Amino acid sequence: MIQQRVMEKLEILADAAKYDVSCSSGQSNRKNKDKGIGDSKGYGICHAFTEDGRCVSLLKILLTNYCIFDCGYCVSRKSNDVKRAAFTVDEVVELTINFYRRNYIEGLFLSSGIFDSADFTMERLIKIAKKLRTEKNFNGYIHLKAIPGSSDDLIREAGLYADRLSLNIEMPTETSLKLLAPEKKHADVIRPMEFLREEILGYKEEKKLIKNSPLFAPAGQSTQMVIGATKENDHEILGMANYFYEKMNLKRVYYSGYVPISNDDNRLPTIGTAVPIIRENRLYQADWLIRYYGFNVNEIVGTEYPNLDLDIDPKLGWALRNLHVFPIDINTADLELIKRVPGIGFLSASKIVAARKFKMILPEHLKKMGVAYTRAKFFLTFTKSFTTQKDLMGSQIKYQILSQQNSKYKADFSNQLSLFQ
Amino acid sequence: MIQVVYDGTYEGWLTAVFDIYQFKFNDVTFGTEDRPSTSLFTGTHTVITDQQKASRVLNGLKAKLTTEGLLRLYRTFLSEVDQSEEIMLQFVLHVFDSKVNIEGDFGNSNVWNLRKAARIVKRESYRMKAFVRFKLTKDELYYALIEPDCNVLPLIKSHFRSRYADQRWLIYDAKRKYGIYYDLETVSTVQLHFHDTKGTAADLTEICDEQEDFFQELWRRYFSSTNIEARKNVKLHLQHMPRRYWKNLIEKNGQ
Questions:
Q1: pLDDT for A417 beyond 50
Q2: Are A62 and A17 in contact (CB under 8 A)?
Q3: B231–A365 CB contact, under 8 Å
Q4: Domain A2-220, what architecture?
């Protein structure tokens, strides 16, 4: 009977937590202490993959889906008619330990609806993390939500047990937030984020001086924005993301394509509206260009091109707008420039730079190294010319590349027609 | 053409390399004692594994390779892909032939073939760190069956030892018929003899902890609850979790 109830709760509270897309379990390095349970490696492990292709790394649940707020985009909002449930502290601890020991998960991702008050909710989350760390000697990964509005002391305490803390901005602009969650303000999220930024920095400095000083959220903080529920363009979204990376030292910004959950709210897309999966994907690609490829956000989106192309990736989009940079000679160009060639990833780029010390790199070598040569060839020139390169216009290159690839999402490339205009 | 027969161990293979240099063999293929080749050879050379010879070759390689490069060679040995030993030999010949470290010579097929084989092993050992599903028995042993394409147990041993330091566990490779067992102190290699009826429901309830079914069922429910139906993408699902691994994954075997 008790077991039956726990199963039911797990179903309700996992279902309610699944729209939080973060599942990262990396970037922390917690050793197994005194022969306890678990450790965290710098790289995360995806233990399973659901049928939507998303990774399952952490036990991602809400402590409860009772909530005093009524945010339009949230499935757990007060006015929504869903089954409600709440775990006890011990239930979450037991679930985590037993799943972990069986190697189902890397750790716990714990979020919660806000019941009673922010502080009361935060205290409960901390209680669970504390019990896992101190009583159970659990060294696996813990991701906690920092509840907006809870006191600094509580948020600091959470950082002493968690590997990562996150506060979701949810709506990319204040206007949208006002529309869908009138009770909330962006400042409620930004302020604790700033507090955490300072704390994380402080503890990091201390750790440099005193080796056995405690870990404080070693995997940093992250946030999430809902995409496609409101009217923001990609310029606004990526601008916000860039702000988080530059000003808040965030490790990750997640983009969550809005999954319609209701038909009764005329502010939001109705059930049956397709999840903007391509757009979400393009945003992640742009995000990577900013974080790993040395692109400035303004090179990817701007006032003249406020939205990312859906039919081509943002790097190709940039290249087609900047044909004057190309073609480049793979045997002499700087690493930074090679990384900017469509079809060459940053791993391939460093391989090219290493390999050209041994001999001249030719197209067949590139193919071997995993470069998408059919795409890259439009932007490359070789010292010893063996193919004559035609003078192609941007639109011709785009057409040739698109006709070579086959995406199952082709039907969703809404601006497909603009190719021929 | 000469066939070099060794005992199937890494030391044996390294000794074989020593012999190949000593006797100046050209055009070598490898065979092991339990994997004799059927094709015709002009000759066969049988290697007698020798620690000293093996470590001389290994030290020679250490001087010319990075730790990662050396590990790549070992991974390829565990890959069990077609021609893995020949790929390793070509790589080693290339390493000793060059004055500088050649790991970055990605345009060279000797370097590239080794990387390719090593990558298969690296990926699968990562997957096995993920896909091991322990079941708890009545005598508090966490045990798991795996059937990987490559011989990954030697590569995942230390991961499981440091992670599950306070529980006894056994991971058994059903394909290669051996396992690794941790007794709270050290990890050792074990060979077990299962009956042919292993894995039947009756067998498992007999040896499993009374809570075991409950947690398996919880995990299955969690797995299906956390899925977002509106984002269904079976192709991606299969790419990450290929069908050949499903047999030993609790969440893919409903009750």
A1: no
A2: yes
A3: no
A4: Alpha-Beta Barrel (3.20)
